[in-house]
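Project outcomes to date are best conveyed with an example. Our students and postdoctoral researchers have been running inverse folding experiments weekly, and each run begins with a structure described purely in tokens. The record below, which covers 103 residues, was selected by the lab manager from last quarter's runs and is presented without edits.
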């Protein structure tokens, strides 16, 4: 049971650090090997904290989220002209007359 918890902790902390930084494949392999050498949960957390501190202080690029519509410009309105529904107004007036709503 303890071994399973350690494996899950390694996976959790590995995923956290990989999502946060843009790393090359070689760097990712080194991180995995370093986490793999840790035997206890305390060691795993210590490895994660050490990696986090070492890369936070350096000029590593941090992944940035995508903002919606950041590269698109505002276009013209797609709102139709009011004159399009002229037939609808005539039809609505006819139905009102048939229903006895208007005199």
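After processing, the design step wrote out the following sequence:
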């Amino acid at each position: 049971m303890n071994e399973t918890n350690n494996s899950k902790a390694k996976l959790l902390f590995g995923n956290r650090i990989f999502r946060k930084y843009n790393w090359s494949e070689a760097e990712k392999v080194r991180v995995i090997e370093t986490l793999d050498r840790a035997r206890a949960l305390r060691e795993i957390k210590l490895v994660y904290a050490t990696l986090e501190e070492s890369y936070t202080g350096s000029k590593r690029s941090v992944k940035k989220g995508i903002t919606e519509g950041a590269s698109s410009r505002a276009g013209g309105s797609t709102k139709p002209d009011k004159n399009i529904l002229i037939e609808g107004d005539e039809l609505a007036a006819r139905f009102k007359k048939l229903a006895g709503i208007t005199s």
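The chain is about 60% helix and 0% strand. The mean pLDDT is 80. The training component of this project remains on track.
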